[in-house]
Design goal:
Shape: rod-shaped
Radius of gyration: 35 Å
Helix content: under 10%
Number of helices: 0
Distance between the termini: 94 Å
């Protein structure tokens, strides 16, 4: 008895026609066709890694599965990988659990969880104030102009013309 083909692998998943041949002691042979169904019954192996993501200036970040995948594998082939949730906003700043779903060509799935740390972005700010003339009165007088901002790296007085001290340091 012989079968052709007799060896199957992942490229043969599905229905395959096999020729079965029988030869008796007198050397007389007979053949027939048989259908062999090859099934992938081994699920993929999902492997995750933790990641950090920074919100953009609009306050959002979108991730793909690549950012948390740590070399997931399958005995045949991976059809798709999906991370969920994948969209983050200011409401998600901090540690978030994200699931990676891995699906193979046979329709089998596995999943793992990763921690995605959502970081806020330091925003920039511009403020403008307009004052025509400040009258301080007679004699030695002063006024204090101040600005407060969190995460500010410096201030610039603009325009500097008309100020009595244009070389003074920023507050």
């Amino acid at each position: 008895l012989s079968a052709n083909p007799s060896v199957f692998n992942c490229s043969n998943i599905g229905t395959n026609t096999v020729v079965l041949t029988v030869v008796n002691a007198l050397g007389i042979s007979s053949s027939c066709n048989a259908l062999v169904v090859v099934i992938d019954s081994i699920p993929p192996i999902a492997k995750c890694k933790n990641a950090d993501v920074i919100l953009n200036v609009s306050g959002f970040a979108n991730i793909s599965s690549d950012i948390i995948d740590s070399a997931s594998s399958d005995n045949c082939s991976i059809l798709s990988m999906t991370a969920f949730p994948s969209l983050f906003s200011c409401a998600n700043i901090g540690a978030n659990t994200v699931t990676l779903l891995v699906k193979d060509a046979g329709g089998l799935t596995s999943s793992c969880n990763a921690t995605v740390n959502v970081l806020g972005q330091n925003s920039t700010c511009s403020a403008t104030a307009s004052v025509g003339t400040v009258y301080l009165g007679y004699g030695l007088q002063s006024t204090i102009l101040s600005a407060n901002a969190s995460n500010a790296s410096g201030y610039n007085w603009s325009p500097s013309t008309g100020l009595s001290c244009t070389a003074c340091p920023n507050p």
